[in-house]
Amino acid sequence: MTETFSQKANLPLVRRLEAVGFRAWPASSVQYDGSWQVRLTAGHPSNRLNSIVPLDPSDHRDVEVRLEKASRKFEAYGRPAVLRHTPLASPVLIDLVKERQWTHFDETIVMTCDLAHAELPDTLDHLPTHDIGRFVDANLATDQVSPKLKPALAEIINAIGPPCGLFMIEDPETGPLATVLCVQDNDLAGIMSLSVAKKRRREGLGLEILTSALRWARMRSARSAWLQVKAVNVPALALYGRLGFREAYRYSYWRREQAQ
């Protein structure tokens, strides 16, 4: 699959979606080396926030030296170097990490939907909250993630530049049931942090909250929606397909294992 990424993709679309994705989930430190981005965020482990991101398939000048230089930045953070492999990555760079036996993982599908013409189900509507702290608590709870990540996640959401809607479904007795973050970047609406409490899945809550976010974005003149989903997440793929999302391209990661 990885060898065919660049052969199948619409590269101008990939560039645009990668750019809006970075604005929707901003790293605390971004450094450039040619067309490569080196994204690092000390307080959060997400690979989106901590990876080397090549943005031009033809940029492979001094590739060995540059990869080593970028890798040392990760070592300074006490982390293994991670490379984001999209259709914008040079085949020369990918061949190099394969040769050096980096570990390949986490294939993800980027999907888009024609929001202007999408037929959204008639579900219960929810309005976005402006309480970032409350949203972060709800998202960590439904995702079953450590509360220790609250400061970092709150910092990320506060740093988002484009307008965003924070959506939650809560039960007065049992607490948060579902969350989603929608980031509207001009005519594009990005869906982030969709999460449903484990005990309440398959009850339509994901569809309900996602539809609310998409309606909100459409009312604000967004014409297309995009999201990222792991290739192995079959239930999520079925949900997104039901709403008209289709695959635009795929990406994955390569990680350099640290010496023991």
UniProtKB/TrEMBL annotation:
SUPFAM superfamilies for this protein: Acyl-CoA N-acyltransferases (Nat) (SSF55729)
Coiled-coil segments: none
The organism's place on the tree of life at top rank: Bacteria
Molecular function per GO: acyltransferase activity, transferring groups other than amino-acyl groups
Residues annotated as transmembrane: none
Keyword annotations from UniProtKB, A to Z: Acyltransferase, Transferase
PROSITE patterns for the chain: GNAT
Protein name: GCN5-related N-acetyltransferase protein
Organism: Rhizobium gallicum bv. gallicum R602sp
Lineage: Bacteria, Pseudomonadati, Pseudomonadota, Alphaproteobacteria, Hyphomicrobiales
